[in-house]
Amino acid sequence: LMSDPYDSIAKIDKLHVPLLQVHGESDSVVPVNFGKRLFEAAGGPKEWLGIPGADHNDALWRAKGYREKLDDFLSKHLLQ
User: Fold this and answer.
1) Which of 27, 24, 19, 9 is nearest to 70 (CA)?
2) Residues 9-58: tens digit of each pLDDT
3) Which of 1, 29, 64, 65 has the smallest number of CB atoms closer than 10 Å to its CB?
4) How many angstroms separate the most distant Cα atoms in the chain?
């Protein structure tokens, strides 16, 4: 389907901004281990928020503490 391999692992170290990565731990499209590999390859500052029981398109609806995590992340990294 795709002609571009979209090699995120090779590109993410070029990202020089704070990263908040949110991933559903039951993601059926992008398995959580792929998300964790991408997170580990990223430089910092970075924060991970895994959402237990969440699939690919419902992570934010299932995320307990998501809003608090986002507010904390923004206040630490972007709203200084």
Assistant:
1) 19
2) 999 999 889 999 999 899 999 999 999 999 999 998 999 999 888 888 88
3) 1
4) 43
Rounded Cα distance, 38 and 61, in Å: 23
Asked which of 45-49, 60-64, 67-71, 73-77 is least confident by mean pLDDT, the reply is 60-64
> Whole-prediction pTM value?
0.82
Q: What is the DSSP string of 31-62?
A: -HHHHHHHHHHS-SSEEEEEETT--SS-HHHH
**Angle of CA points 7, 59, 27, to nearest 5°:** 50
Tokens 């692992």, located at residue: 9
User: Residue 51 pairs with which residues in a beta bridge?
Assistant: 24
What distances in angstroms separate CA 30 from CA 8, 17, 36, 61, 71, one per listed residue?
A: 12, 23, 10, 18, 25
